[in-house]
C-alpha cells in the first residue's frame, strides 16, 4: 500500500475538478493536490462567545483547547501557584463551556493534574478545586 503524506494548509476545494489547493510553504506557488475522495476533518471551531463570560479575550477564562491556549493556561496557573505560595487562598474552577461539549473527560483530567501538582508543591490545602 502506498501512502503519501503531504503537510499543508488547504485554502481551496474544487469538488468538480477534484483537487484542493495548498497554501505555498514559503513564497512559492500554491500547490495543487488531486484526489479521488476527499475527507474533511479540520477539527472543532471554538465558540467561546456562545457562553457569556467564557473566553480568554472577551471573557474571564483560560482554555487548554489549542497549544497556544494551553501555554497561556499554564502561565496563568503558575501565577496562581505563586499567590498560593505567598499564603493566599484561591479557588480553581475547571469545566466545559456547554453541557453539549464533548471534552468533559479532558476537564476531569485537568482537575486531577491540578490536584496532583498542588499536592506536590505543598499548597493544596490553600486551594479549592
Ligand atoms: C486537552 C484535550 C484533551 C483531550 N483528551 C481526549 C481524550 O483523552 N480522549 C479522547 O477521545 N478525546 C480527547 N480530546 C478530544 C480529541 O482531541 C478530539 O475529539 C479529536 O482530536 C478530534 O479529532 P479531529 O481529527 O476531528 O480534529 P483535530 O484533532 O482538531 O484535527 C484537525 C486537524 O485539521 C487541521 N486543519 C484545520 N484546518 C486545516 C486546513 N485548512 N488545511 C489543512 N489542515 C487543517 C488542524 O491543524 C488539525 O491538525 C481532547 C481534546 C483536548 C483539547
UniProtKB/TrEMBL annotation:
Species annotation: Candidatus Chloroploca asiatica
Listed SUPFAM superfamilies: FAD/NAD(P)-binding domain
Gene3D superfamilies hit by this protein: 3.50.50.100
Cofactor entry: FAD
Domain of life: Bacteria
Family, similarity comment: Belongs to the NADH dehydrogenase family.
An MF annotation (GO) of this entry: NAD(P)H dehydrogenase (quinone) activity
Protein's name according to its UniProt entry: FAD/NAD(P)-binding domain-containing protein
Keywords, alphabetical: FAD, Flavoprotein, Oxidoreductase
InterPro entries (UniProt xref): FAD/NAD-bd_sf, FAD/NAD-binding_dom, NADH-Q_oxidoreductase
PANTHER family named among the record's database cross-references: APOPTOSIS-INDUCING FACTOR 1 (PTHR42913), SULFIDE-QUINONE REDUCTASE (PTHR42913:SF6)
Domain FAD/NAD(P)-binding residues, every copy: 6-106
A biological process term (GO) from this entry: aerobic electron transport chain
Amino acid at each position: 500500500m502506498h501512502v503519501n503524506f503531504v503537510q499543508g494548509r488547504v485554502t481551496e476545494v474544487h469538488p468538480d475538478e477534484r483537487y484542493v489547493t495548498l497554501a505555498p510553504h514559503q513564497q512559492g506557488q500554491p500547490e495543487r493536490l488531486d484526489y479521488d475522495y476527499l475527507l474533511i476533518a479540520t477539527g472543532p471551531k471554538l465558540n467561546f462567545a456562545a457562553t457569556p463570560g467564557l473566553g480568554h479575550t472577551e471573557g474571564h477564562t483560560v482554555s487548554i483547547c489549542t497549544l497556544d491556549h494551553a501555554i497561556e493556561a499554564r502561565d496563568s496557573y503558575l501565577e496562581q501557584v505563586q499567590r498560593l505560595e505567598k499564603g493566599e487562598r484561591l479557588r480553581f474552577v475547571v469545566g466545559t463551556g456547554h453541557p453539549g461539549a464533548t471534552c468533559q473527560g479532558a476537564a476531569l483530567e485537568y482537575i486531577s493534574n491540578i490536584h496532583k501538582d498542588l499536592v506536590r508543591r505543598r499548597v493544596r490545602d490553600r486551594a479549592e478545586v
